[in-house]
Amino acid sequence: MVLPNPVPAEGYTDTTGRPLPGGAALPLVTDGERRKLLEEWNNTKAEYPHDLCVHQLLEAQAERTPESVAVVCRDQQLTYGELNARANRLAHYLVKRGVGAEVPVGICLERSLELAVALQGVLKAGGACLPLDPKYPKERLAYMQEDSKAPVVLIQPSLTSEFTGATSQVVCLSPGLESIAQEPQNNLDSGVKPHNLAYAIYTSGSTGRPKGVLLTHRGLVNHHMAAVKLYGLKPSDRVLQFSSISFDIAVEEIFPTWVVGGSVVLWSEGMSLDPSEFLRWIRQQSVTVLDLPTAYWHELVYALPELEEGLPVSLRLVIVGGEKASADAFRSWRKCAGERVRWINTYGPTEASVIATAYEPGKQEMLTELPIGRPIANVRVYILDSHQQPVPIGVHGELYIGGDGVARGYLNQPELTAEKFVPDPFSSEPNARMYKTGDLAQYRPDGNIEFRGRTDHQVKIRGYRVELGEIESLLDKHPCVREAVVEVRESASGDKCLVAYVVPSSTPPPTAGDLRAFVKQTLPEYMVPSAFVELREMPLTPNGKIDRRALPAPERSVLWPEEEPRAPRDRLESQLVAIWEEVLGIRPIGVQQNFFDLGGHSLLAVRLVHRVGKALGKNLPIATLLEAPTVERLAGFLRQGGSSLRWSSLVPIQTGGSRPAFFCVHGLGGTVMRFHALARHLGADQPVYGLQAQGLDPALPCHNTVEDMTTHYLMEVRSVQPQGPYYFGGYSFGGLVAIEMARQLLREGEEPRVVALFDTFPGKPKSNASLFVKFLRKPMRQWLPYLRRKARVHVQWYINRLWFPRRIVEVRDACLQAEESYVPRVYPGRLVLFKPTEKSLRSYQESHGGWDQWAAGGVEIHEIAGDHGSITKEPKVRLLAQELRACFERAQAACPPSVGLGPMEGTEASPSARR
């Protein structure tokens, strides 16, 4: 039960004689219970090296075991000696650029050996690590740089365009960077002390902007030493680094492992989250410890009963945290995993240096509610009422955290710091503070704590903290929105999603697609609402405040769709719709609505495919959903048994709209999944079809010549559009096929109005060696980053071959064979080439992408910020879509071009066209 607030009693003192805080109140607990709550259950005192900083612990470990492996990334690794030496060179380099105590340094790197070097190098220089997730929108990254005033940002070469115009010094970090390689490799004394800043981690902010949490060396050293003991970490452990570097769980994955001399195994970017493939990778890497977001652990639990091989033998410990864990999921886990693998539930906000409490169920213990446990070493936890007095056992109160893990506060926000970090009246330490979490909790009789929700509008989505006010503030800035409120909704399966309720200020109102695209420019993917609900006005309480309890669930009557949902037409579609509604938590769903437009993400995709496969007795790969993202498409695929001679290379990605359809050919991988984002940004009125490799169907042979693909794909195109004008495109290798399709149609008297190439080259160069020699004559700052990036791409592909389905590898090999045997010929019309700003080897040498001699009608050039892969991915794909749509509009407005017509007015013509 919940007791009322205590009655004020002026002058009341506690058992030590001190006045009660918060205006004084009658206590709700006896003296004996008070001692238990404040002293016995908070008796966490433990020795740790409180006079050392994080990097000093790591240096000591490097001296003890210089030959042991510290970090593993795909087929690369660094020993402790190598990592320490490289981090020292970076530290000396940073010190010369003004980095020292209390100075934040931005780290915007994907998982790589360079990331490991950067983390240690910044700390060794005395600076504070400021993690910047490369997947974040450019605007959010820019705000974090500006707010932190970081003088230096460490990036990888492929992200150069994201930091154009940055006020910070931008350093492209690579192993061979000459200016760093020349620095000394000895340890240096930065003069930093345990009270100095070690990390600044940005979390969602209720004011509309993210806020930086300031973590000290002292708090992190305490956490690391406590984690080593709590988890039983040993030098033989291989710990997976799974979480984003901007998520504080990454700190726990990395540093305690290094403190004890174990190996950090970096999760490979782009690897599948399918539970079967994930566990296979863990097995091959001999990982012993997993520290997972609760949401993904739930996905593993759902899939475990269906997996034949079960958990890897090497795995000894699984840690979960980030949001509330399901007791039902734990019971299923115990049935599948038994008691061989330890399982620990953790809790803690970033403001408490990663975690504050932990709970490990006893053997044979099967719970109806999973506690968050007891405080870790040197951390104190209080559950208090509104007067900051302890509440009785079993009574809800707000959870406060004290002790050595408490953060310094928030960067540049003294008022918020004073509000959330308050004096600790229960500590004997001078100037002790406690953090006011906003979480509701209660004590169990055994001293373990149960989480009971929030006191405000902060929520956890897939482990990430989300302040609903930040999303609301952004939506309020949309010119067609009068008022916006965001709430979290929970599906029957327990999955949480964000729903935005919007009162529009314009007629017609903005579409859900407009609003989704607007927020994606600023917010990370996990903060983008899954559904948008249109309201005529907000429901209000009698005192005029928004009545959040009266906000309707996102049912069809209020859901703001892109188009009218279509009802299922048979039993199979009805089954699929029911599964989609359960997984997404939205009802009803139309058979033509896109899974990803409805808020689907990678974890939900894993769950959806698993549920469909289990219900229908099918073993479906995740890629099925990417290529059939609607119930209608997926039902059609399943009716054919998932694989049959009726399988089509033509994939309707977006069929609505009155404009001429755009047909786009796959790259070397054979799939069209990269075209889904492009189609969305082209607009709902632009039909888009992808052409995927025939060999993706195991029952059909792979085409290994451009000519065979051309014949087959034209037959597929004419099945939906018998006559021109035609709009063709192709990504990378696919551009060659698009040209040949256009050439064949010209011979037959048809009209290919647009032929768009996305970073395509005209076949193989005459001499790779000559290009390479000319390229090496350029300054090192130009060619070294490219060579490193290119090497990583090739290495990644050959590693991925080990995990990819055999058919995917066969399709890629067939496409490579087709590319190598292709002999370019002069195309009689005009070509439109979209080139990335980050150049490849041939881009440095060949004007107009090498097409000037092969396009009789000229070459129209458009440069898109990014590299070969990123121009078709978020967020760069928006720029590509804008340019491509403008190209379509010019083609429609112009007179139908005849063969050999030169470039349109205002476009860049090739030298041959000018002649």
Could you explain the architecture of this structure?
The protein is of the alpha/beta class and 915 residues long. Among the domains are: 458-550, GMP Synthetase, Chain A, domain 3, CATH 3.30.300; 647-915, Rossmann fold (3-Layer(aba) Sandwich). The chain contains 27 helices and 33 strands. The strands form eight sheets. A seven-stranded mixed β-sheet has the order 27-29-28-30-31-32-33, sandwiched between helices. Strand 12 (317-321), helix 11 and strand 13 form a beta-alpha-beta unit. Helix 7 (217-231) packs across helix 8 (249-260) and helix 19 (675-682) crosses helix 26. It is globular and about 95 Å long. It starts with 30 loop residues before the first helix and ends with a helix.
User: Mind telling me the CATH class of the domain at 647-915?
Assistant: Alpha Beta
Structural class of the helices, strands and pairings? alpha/beta
Global outline:
globular
- Tell me the number of helical segments per DSSP (H or I, 4 or more residues long): 27
Mean of all residue-level pLDDT scores: 81
Distance between the termini: 87 Å
Q: Which architecture name of the domain at 647-915 does CATH use?
A: 3-Layer(aba) Sandwich
Oligomer: single chain
Largest sheet: spatial strand order = 27-29-28-30-31-32-33
Summarize the amount of helix as a percent range: 25-40%
* CATH fold topology of the domain at 647-915: Rossmann fold
What is the C-alpha radius of gyration, as a whole number of Å?
A: 29 Å
CATH H-level superfamily title of the domain at 647-915? Alpha/Beta hydrolase fold, catalytic domain
Count the E strands. 33
Uncertain residue ranges:
1-26, 556-563, 799-805, 895-915
Major sheet: 7 strands, mixed
Proportion of beta-strand residues? 15-25%
